[in-house]
Specification:
2 domains; mainly alpha; 310 residues; globular; single chain
Length: 310
């Protein structure tokens, strides 16, 4: 049962007044969660990628090195979980599910003709990205609901009152989008081409063979849900407990940006993280943040599909 959103008090005009509930986890939990998440993602990509190389498709790390790196990542993750007394079964379940899906995709997929694999018409690269998103969600649940036996509302699963929180989310997204457009234009004017964000939406769309439906489902729905659970639902309130609202919003957004490894993507995703974090803090529900995140990704895909930008 998802609880109803608490009414926003009149003093919420203060910038540091927030509507999210206090949580039991803190900075150490977040550091461990980030470490385990990275290790499991590495394990999924390398172990399943090794199978893919054997099948003749391009992967990041060739077999048998992928096996060794993947097994080492799994071993380190289990040691960390054991050392700090965190539940391992949700993480192992995410590892098994994500790795299993990719292994099946490689083994029963077909060569697309350019060295990449497709499974039932979906590029394995996109399947891998979805599997990685699942790890974010699994870690968030494991380190909050399972570890501390907190209710779902601790991750922001709170019902909203009417449409107002979503209008606020859209307004904040538009402000953030304006900042991103200005940033991009400034980079072009100054000639800093290396910092221009990659057109990730177009790259994913090309991988999906132009399929707008598959791309929106994976990028505009599933990805934002999983990322919001981890970065806003889990990391942000954990930092609020230790650092207060301002620094928690800053630190969680920096982490969100850092997970998008490309140098050109870090600043835009940091700005998006600030917007989404503020939406969550002020509405007290993860749903408007998920909506804004999904809206952002979906618009990017639609622009990549239909717009011509010079």
């Amino acid at each position: 049962m998802i609880p109803q959103q608490s009414p926003i008090s009149p003093e919420n005009g203060r910038w540091d007044t927030v509507s999210i509930r206090p949580v039991k986890w803190g900075s150490l939990d977040i550091v461990v969660a980030i470490t385990v998440t990275v290790l499991v993602v590495v394990a999924i990509l390398t172990l399943s990628g090794s199978f893919g190389t054997d099948a003749g498709y391009d992967t990041t790390i060739a077999s048998p090195n992928g096996y060794y790196i993947g097994l080492l990542a799994v071993g380190i993750a289990l040691v960390v979980l054991r050392l700090f007394h965190y539940p391992s079964w949700p993480i192992l379940a995410a590892l098994g599910a994500g790795g299993g899906v990719l292994v099946i995709s490689y083994q029963f997929g077909n060569d697309a003709g350019d060295g990449t694999a497709q499974f039932v018409g979906v590029p394995v690269g996109i399947i891998a990205a979805t599997a990685m998103s699942g790890v974010f969600a699994a870690t968030g649940f494991a380190f909050s609901i399972v570890r501390y036996r907190e209710p779902l509302s601790s991750l922001g699963f709170v019902k909203t009152n009417g449409i107002r929180p979503y209008l606020f989310a859209v307004a904040m997204w538009l402000i953030g989008l304006s900042v991103l457009i200005f940033w991009l234009q400034a980079l072009v004017w100054l000639g800093f081409d290396s910092l221009v964000p990659p057109d990730t939406a177009r790259e994913i769309l090309d991988e999906a063979g132009g399929s707008i439906v598959i791309t929106i489902i994976l990028v505009g729905i599933l990805g934002p849900i999983a990322e919001e659970i981890f970065f806003r639902g889990y990391i942000l309130p954990g930092f609020v407990r230790r650092f207060g609202v301002g620094r928690a919003l800053l630190f969680s957004s920096l982490i969100f940006g850092s997970f998008h490894i490309d140098p050109g993507a870090i600043v835009p995703t940091f700005a998006l993280g600030m917007v989404l974090g503020w939406v969550y803090l002020k509405t007290g529900s993860i749903w408007p943040a998920m909506f804004a995140h999904g809206l952002h990704n979906t618009v990017a895909v639609l622009v990549a599909k239909y717009a011509t930008v010079n």
